């Protein structure tokens, strides 16, 4: 997904490359939530907001970084494998490609929706190619709030991927939103989809 403006700085992209090497979850309130399929999920409650932030990292075997990036960035394909997507589309807003994503939640909970900008770059870091994807919430009149969904107004996500030296990928992800959405559910669904693609040789 391309954007005509550069919302994120070079330093922001490179800082995620550093976190890929050292996720920094020892101490400082981070707790292990779950481990599965070679991936560890940690969370920490922010003192200032009372909401959880997450760090996800590990190695996905037989899943090269280019494949994972393609699966992650292909919004049309996400509609096929993520049954919780009710609506997912993009629109050009003031020179930026803005994503609208509505997540279908089971009754009696309201659906949740996101409006955000997402950018992908390939960088060289310590002599290795790294894919970095950054996303953060935004507000534009083209996507007004709906009475049928709760708007996630504070959303931030960072993803970094590099080769594990074989046929797999070293992965790091950071996630935060102000509604404490159940992050591990969709993360592991995405991991499972990527793993099945890799096993199939796609």
UniProtKB/TrEMBL annotation:
Keyword Cytoplasm listed: yes
GO molecular function annotation: phosphatidylcholine binding; phosphatidylcholine transporter activity
Name of the molecule in the record: Phosphatidylcholine transfer protein
Entry's Gene Ontology cellular component terms: cytosol
Subcellular location: Cytoplasm
Cited InterPro entries: START-like_dom_sf (IPR023393), START_lipid-bd_dom (IPR002913), START_lipid_transfer (IPR051213)
Lineage, broadest ranks: Eukaryota, Metazoa, Chordata, Craniata, Vertebrata
Subunit description: Interacts with ACOT13/THEM2.
Keywords noted in UniProt: Acetylation, Cytoplasm, Lipid transport, Lipid-binding, Phosphoprotein, Transport
START domain sequence ranges: 29-193
SMART domains (alphabetical): START
